[in-house]
Amino acid sequence: RRRKREEKMTTEKKEMEVVKGLDLERYMGRWYEIASFPSRFQPKNGADTRATYTLNPDGTVKVLNETWDGGKRGFIQGSAFKTDPKSDEAKFKVRFYVPPFLPIIPVTGDYWVLYIDPEYQHAVIGQPSRSYLWILSRTAHVEEETYKQLVEKAVEQGYDVSKLHKTAQSDTPPESDAAPDDTKGIWWLKSIFGK
């Protein structure tokens, strides 16, 4: 019996499988955060959290992350690029420049697409340490059955999904320029890379 348990432990922590042949153009646009692993750096009441991706002419991706807390919009911008341009695996590095530090310091983290549905409507994002997990959707709300299936994808990749926390999303997503900006914005970066 002990051997069986040891085998289970090793299979759970096997290398994560990532999406191959991701169509980057189809992946661009706005994604809403349906659930994520909470971070002590993130505002506890952060709502309407979302990411908007735009393809640059050089093949890199412009990243805009936004959240709203107490009527204020927190955001951070950065860029993403393939970890290995020759690989067909959806493993990216995301780099953010952190203005409050002088000189401006770039902070880089991993962004692995673990699952994408055929219609590019839902995605599961992780990184190698399994400390961070995001469930994203093109819509601000998903059906409970769909959510369960997405969570199951994370379980298959060895994630402890008991830490997943659903993100509050409004029925009418806020406009980016309709709220005062929260200039502290540092939490994004810490939450994204677990630094």
TrEMBL record:
In Pfam terms, one family for this protein is: Lipocalin_2
The family database entries (CDD domains) matched by this protein are listed as: lipocalin_Blc-like (cd19438)
Q: Domain Lipocalin/cytosolic fatty-acid binding, which positions? A: 22-169
SUPFAM superfamilies attached to this UniProt entry: Lipocalins
Q: Sorted alphabetically, which Gene3D superfamilies does this protein's record hold?
A: 2.40.128.20
Q: Which family does it belong to?
A: Belongs to the calycin superfamily. Lipocalin family.
UniProt protein name: Lipocalin/cytosolic fatty-acid binding domain-containing protein
Organism, per UniProt? Brassica napus (Rape)
